[in-house]
Specification:
By secondary structure, the protein is of the alpha+beta class. Helix content is about 20%, strand content about 35%. The structure holds iron/sulfur cluster.
Length: about 120
């Protein structure tokens, strides 16, 4: 099976042409550096994404706090992440980078604030 994916490891955005057999890469072209091959392998075996969203606040000067995971999580966990953040209510002032949820979804990543709540 042939597949094309865009490498997002750097701004060049190389288009990787991959030939797959039984979920194994048998040939690849289009990558301008070795990182493209690592990225393609990750995309085939275990695609990961940084999760970004917002959580509701209570008693703060604005209604929503933007958040993100501090490391990528498996792509198949994104819907679980969306459901989880809907249940969060941030009551305390935070600064950029403060941990909102430790070990988010048990994935060994933290959910962190991406702005200050106090200005
Ligand atoms: S293959 Fe290398 S050069 Fe191309 S986008 Fe990926 S990291 Fe950048």
């Amino acid at each position: 099976m042939k597949k094309k994916i865009i490498c997002i490891e750097c701004p060049k955005g190389c288009v990787l042409s991959i030939d797959l057999q039984n979920d194994e890469i048998v040939s690849m072209s289009g990558n301008e550096c070795p990182k493209g091959q690592e990225y393609a392998l990750s995309e085939i075996k275990n695609p990961l994404r940084i999760f970004t969203s917002s959580v509701l606040t209570q008693g703060l000067s604005f209604k929503m706090m933007p958040v993100r995971t501090d490391k990528p999580i498996p792509k198949h966990k994104l819907f679980a992440a969306i459901k989880a953040v809907k249940k969060i209510r941030l009551c305390c002032p935070v600064n950029t980078g403060d941990v909102i949820v430790e070990n988010f979804l048990g994935l060994d990543v933290n959910l962190v604030a991406t702005r200050n709540s106090m200005n």
